Amino acid sequence: MAGPTYDKADLDRRMAGAVESLKHDLQGLRTGRASVSLLDPVTVEVYGAHMPISQLATVSAPEPRLLSVQVWDKSNVGPVDKAIRSAGLGLNPIVDGQTLRLPIPDLTEERRKELAKLAGQYAEKAKIAVRNVRRDGMDNLKTDEKKHGLSEDERKRHETDVQKATDATIADIDAAFAAKEKEILGK
After folding, report:
1. Does the keyword Protein biosynthesis apply (predicted)?
2. What's the pTM value of the predicted model, to 2 decimals?
3. For the segment 156-173, what is each residue's pLDDT rounded down to a tens digit?
């Protein structure tokens, strides 16, 4: 017979993973300021494979509104330029030898609102993931109560712990979203 199915450490790990995933998604949203993480999702087709830019070049932000991509191999400048242009980030690289300069254009008010809405969607997905983890934890506690002799008082105490962890994680998600929304909208 298997042991208890409730594992608080696993639930905490899964909830923290949802927050980390959200933060990674939010980093990819352009806010009008240069950020080296802006190019993280871009992959370049070179040497017969798709590779992230970080494996082909050094990305830096020498100015608040400029990204610089120093490509290590001269033969990869064209593919990196093409990948950045086709990534849908609204960036147009200026090629200067093995360096690509990417001026970050101002965001229109309409685009800012779209990005804020997208950030809200990311936050909602993270909240759904956390609620699913909470549901799994509650289900595991009920199973343990039935199969493994967990007392009703112990189950309720653990359910309270799960709910507190859920509330704290949702608060973290709301804080990350609020910070990103403020950054996007420039308020």
Report:
1. yes
2. 0.68
3. 999 999 999 999 999 999
